[in-house]
Design goal:
By secondary structure, the protein is mostly beta strands. It has five helices and twelve strands. It has helices at about 65-70, 125-130, 160-165, 185-195, 205-210; strands at about 10-15, 20-25, 40-45, 45-55, 55-60, 80-85, 105-115, 115-125, 135-140, 145-150, 155-160, 175-180. Strands 1-2-5-4-3-6 form a six-stranded antiparallel β-barrel. The longest helix is centred in the C-terminal third of the chain and has 10 residues, at about 185-195. The chain is globular and about 70 Å long.
C-alpha cells in the first residue's frame, strides 16, 4: 500500500527484456534505506517487488500483465521514474490510498501554465473516467493528485510547482502516456452495491453446524 507521495526520482540504468517480461535496473538513493529483498516499491505508480539491490540501486521483475496494462513498456535506459516505498504503519498518510495496481494508461492531451500552477489534461478510456470525480483523488504515474475538472473523454489536474519539480510530471509533454490508478474506495463501494449474480448458498445454523466449527 502506498500514499502517492513520491520520495524521489530514479533513473532506469537498463532493461533486460524477455519474450513477455522484463527486468528493470533502477538507480536510486532514498528508497534504498532499510530495503530488503521482497520489499515493494512503486515505480511510476506500479507496485514492483525488489529482487536484488546494492548501494546504487535495485532491480525488479515486470510481468507480462503489468507491461500490457501500464506505461512501463515505454521505459528505456535513461528514463526517469517516480519512486515510493510501501507506506509504513506508523507513518503520516499524506496522499490517498494507492494500491500500485494500475487500472490503465492515459494520454497527456494538454499541459498549460496558470500563474504558478501547471494544468495537465489527461485523456482516458470510459472505464477509467467512470471512477473520476471532481475533487476526488487519482494517481498519475504514482502521484497522488486531486481532480480539478472532468470532461467528456478527459480530466484535468492542477499541480503545484513543488509536485512538478519533485516528480516526473516536469518531463511530461502532450502525447506522453501515463499510468492511472483510480481511487480504490470508489471501486470497492461500487462492487459491494452490485447485486450478486448468484445467490449465496448458506447452511442453516444448527447445533451440528456450531459444533463443527468449535462453538
Amino acid at each position: 500500500m502506498f500514499t502517492g507521495i513520491v520520495e524521489e526520482i530514479g533513473t532506469v540504468n537498463g532493461i533486460r527484456r524477455g519474450r513477455h517480461s522484463a527486468v528493470l535496473d533502477i538507480r536510486a538513493q532514498t528508497v534504498l534505506t532499510d530495503l530488503k529483498i521482497g520489499d515493494s516499491i512503486a515505480v511510476n505508480g506500479v507496485c514492483l517487488t525488489v529482487t536484488a539491490f546494492d548501494q546504487t540501486g535495485f532491480q525488479a521483475d515486470v510481468m507480462h500483465e503489468t507491461l500490457n496494462r501500464s506505461a512501463l513498456r515505454k521505459l528505456c535506459s535513461g528514463s526517469h521514474v517516480n519512486l515510493e516505498r510501501a507506506m509504513p504503519a506508523n507513518g503520516r498518510f499524506g496522499g490517498h490510498i494507492v494500491a500500485g495496481h494500475v487500472d490503465g494508461v492515459g494520454t497527456v492531451a494538454e499541459v498549460k501554465r496558470d500563474d504558478t500552477a501547471v494544468w495537465y489534461t489527461i485523456e482516458a478510456s470510459p472505464e477509467i473516467l467512470h471512477y473520476i470525480v471532481e475533487k476526488g483523488s487519482v494517481a498519475i504515474d504514482g502521484i497522488s493528485l486531486t481532480v480539478a475538472r472532468v470532461a467528456s473523454g478527459s480530466f484535468s489536474i492542477s499541480a503545484i510547482p513543488h509536485t512538478v519539480r519533485m516528480t516526473v510530471l516536469a518531463e511530461r509533454r502532450e502525447g506522453d502516456l501515463v499510468n492511472l490508478e483510480n481511487d480504490v474506495i470508489g471501486k470497492y463501494v461500487e462492487r459491494l452495491f452490485q447485486p450478486a449474480k448468484e445467490p449465496a448458498r448458506t447452511r442453516p445454523i444448527t447445533k451440528e453446524f456450531l459444533a463443527e466449527y468449535g462453538f
